[in-house]
Amino acid sequence: MLSPSILSHLLTRLATSLLTLVFASLVVFSTLEILPGDPARLMLGLGASEDAIAALRGQMGLNQPIILRYLTWAGHMLTGDFGRSYTYAVPVRDLIAERLAVSLPLALMALTLSMAIAIPVGLFAAARRGRAPDSAIMGVTQLGVAIPNFWFALLLVYVFAVTLRLVPAGGFPGWSAGIFPAFKSLLLPAIALALPQAAILARVTRSALIETLSQDYIRTARAKGLTQTAILRRHALPNAMIPVLTILGLQFSFLLAGTVIIENVFYLPGLGRLIFQAITQRDLIVVEGVIMVLVAAVLLVNLIVDLAYAFVDPRLDIPR
Amino acid sequence: MTFATARRYAFLALAALFLGAANPATARSDLTLAMVLEPPHLDPTAGAAGAIDEIVYANIFEGLTRIGANGEAQPALAKNWDISPDRKTYTFHLHQGVKFHDGAAFDANDVKFSLDRARAPDSTNAQKGLFEAIDQVEVIDPATVKVTLKHPSGDFLYSLGWGDAVIVGRTSAATNKEKPIGTGPFKFQNWAKGSQVALARSSDYWGAKPALDKATFRFIPDPAAASAALLAGDIQAFPSFPAPESVPQFQADPRFKVEIGTTEGETILSENNARPPFDNPKVREAIAHAIDRKAVIDGAMFGFGTQIGSFFPPHHPAYVDLTGERKYDPELAKKLLAEAGYLDGFKTTLKLPPPVYARRGGEIIAAQLRSVGIEAQIILVEWAQWLEQVFKSRDYDLTIISHTEPNDLNIFARDDYYFNYRNPAFKTLIAEISATPDGEKRNALYGEAQKTLSAGAPVAFLMQFPKIGIWDAKLEGLWKNYPIPANDLTAVKWAE
């Protein structure tokens, strides 16, 4: 199914991705080194004696030279060992896995929801370009882009959790508590995350569609006597997918890690909060691990989006 | 819906109603309570985070003594003790038949192990100072331990009640961070990181059984989420509620009980006494008079918090009210500044750590200082930076911080502390206090120490930090005050 040119493109992309990862690991490690603050002092607080702090630094392996620590860390990471958290004293890999079990489904739910809303709305608006429904939709999406998602989240909590008591106000019971309770607790956060994204996506879909609608082949299709709906669905939409896919890729990367505010409002144990906590506690090894996973995820998503371009537009088969 | 099915549903609904009504008598025995911060780990002997003790203290771990709801040292694993006439030897008589949650038996060897471990050279105990007086720990027999001190210490029994001094098992000590094993009435169930810690009643507890059989601690950092979680009934208690601005809403709601208590958190505007112009006592006095404490408490804490005039908690029997000594008086402040040679005031910096009391309070204090001619430039820092720059390197002019350790008046007697305050008379007083047993004489000395600090004005004393507790109106037994970091669940129960 994959043509040779796509395959070679894929290999080049993989190689550059690996280089990016190595480069990122260097940048991440050295940047965090210059961050002021000693994790040992932070853990032992105001009453600690200097020798207790020194002993803890030794235990954490912080007394070794930086080059040695980078090599150990990077070497272990190749084997899938992300090291041990300074504060939690458990493997970083387990921490990340636990958090991904929340962040990944949440991001997927939000993305699906955002697509399910945005694409039909974009189609609807594009088909009625310049008329009242279009203006109304553009106004609403403008509002959706402008409203801060945490405020919207609080509103959702007060209506659906505090007043109607349909869903919990926050927290995550874990997947072990059953699919339904876990799903229920991710519902409001997913909606809060999805709506602003849907607003952006709907606007992008609409303008991409409007642009394709001015193309020659659309006129031809119209001349053939196709209905407006058929033109939109069969001819315009697939060709408008490229900008939509680009935005979707960006949104997914954002939803995976940039959701710390929403995670705070719903006190969800996601990746965003893990990295935020780790930074304030100077749990540098966790920060480094999470960033590397995120860099890898972004690279992967970009790769997938790239392949998807080729899928929706066969002309892009041979990449430049 | 046919008539028959409708009738069947009606019957089912009725049945459910009757079953529900017939079964209300069993009192509730589970509790979900919330905390703002998640602990880094669960070993109270290896970290300063109050959040560790707020889960494990008195619930999972116990010490030889324990601190009660009013801050008094009480017997715990030691049922009683004898003190030698020179007050240097303590013989503790231990409870027998006590077991750790992993089944290991508790005896005198665990006591020796725990105390020796805490004061060892490679110990990572955050409060090693507590064990400073100990010279030797000897096992007399499995139920008796003799502790010899280097010098008499009036605080010794109290120090043993801290979370940092709990007794850990010889086989489980190394893994307490992840899987805490203690002798307490609750045992650790699991910890969903970032989310919650669950405890369950221990079936073979040596003492009185607690009424709760399940307790879950949830971590809710966001103040708005904290209110929502209480209102939605997801949690039934928030013992240290983070949003003073939302308290009136709960006070007006009969479903909730609001208890405003005190903590050991003396909140102060610290001054770098080694750095001009703060090395001049007149400047420090001027600052003390330039601050309107009430405005700070109203503005930063929505009126919750108690004014203090020295470094001592108002709930302590030895407390002396010195708030009248340094009254808010901007004119006097200006006069003192002029006498100190700063007729036109001066420029300085104010470093503020993240907590809301510091950030909000800092804005108000900067404005108050400005009105007497002191321009304090605000610099926001994170915790790690605060510890590094202010606390360790002492690179600061002014900062706002709550000193939450109990019994910490002696920090003003430490030469190497970040205040850079040197007062030989105060040091003598602290040494005397430490060697004096509890009682009238000690309290009188405490009073004198408070007055010395108020007079010397090493820092500006602002307020005693409040503990705002909000919980379900039917819940009983949670602590009103915060004498040490703890959420003691041993006496908590649901009213019928």
Automatic annotation (TrEMBL), chain A:
| ABC transmembrane type-1 domain sequence ranges | 100-305
Assigned keywords, A-Z: Cell membrane, Membrane, Transmembrane, Transmembrane helix, Transport
Q: How does the protein's chain sit in the membrane according to the entry?
A: Multi-pass membrane protein
Q: Which Pfam families match?
A: BPD_transp_1, BPD_transp_1_N
Keyword Transmembrane on entry: yes
* Cellular component, GO annotation: plasma membrane
Major location, coarse class?
membrane
Q: Does the keyword Transmembrane helix apply?
A: yes
Similarity-based family: Belongs to the binding-protein-dependent transport system permease family.
Q: Which PANTHER family match?
A: DIPEPTIDE TRANSPORT SYSTEM PERMEASE PROTEIN DPPB-RELATED (PTHR43163:SF6)
Query: What is the protein name for this chain?
Result: Peptide/nickel transport system permease protein
Q: What is the lineage of its organism?
A: Bacteria, Pseudomonadati, Pseudomonadota, Alphaproteobacteria, Hyphomicrobiales
From TrEMBL, chain B:
Q: Does the keyword Ubl conjugation apply?
A: no
Q: Which UniProt keywords apply?
A: Signal
> This protein's superkingdom?
Bacteria
Where this protein primarily resides, as one coarse class? periplasm
Q: Which GO terms describe its cellular component?
A: ATP-binding cassette (ABC) transporter complex; outer membrane-bounded periplasmic space
- Which Gene Ontology molecular-function terms are recorded? peptide transmembrane transporter activity
Solute-binding protein family domain: which residues?
A: 73-402
GO biological processes: peptide transport
The record ties this protein, via PANTHER family, to: D,D-DIPEPTIDE-BINDING PERIPLASMIC PROTEIN DDPA-RELATED, PERIPLASMIC BINDING COMPONENT OF ABC TRANSPORTER
The record's comment on protein family reads: Belongs to the bacterial solute-binding protein 5 family.
Q: What name does this protein carry?
A: Peptide/nickel transport system substrate-binding protein
Q: Please report the organism this UniProt entry assigns to the protein.
A: Phyllobacterium leguminum
Q: What is the lineage of its organism?
A: Bacteria, Pseudomonadati, Pseudomonadota, Alphaproteobacteria, Hyphomicrobiales
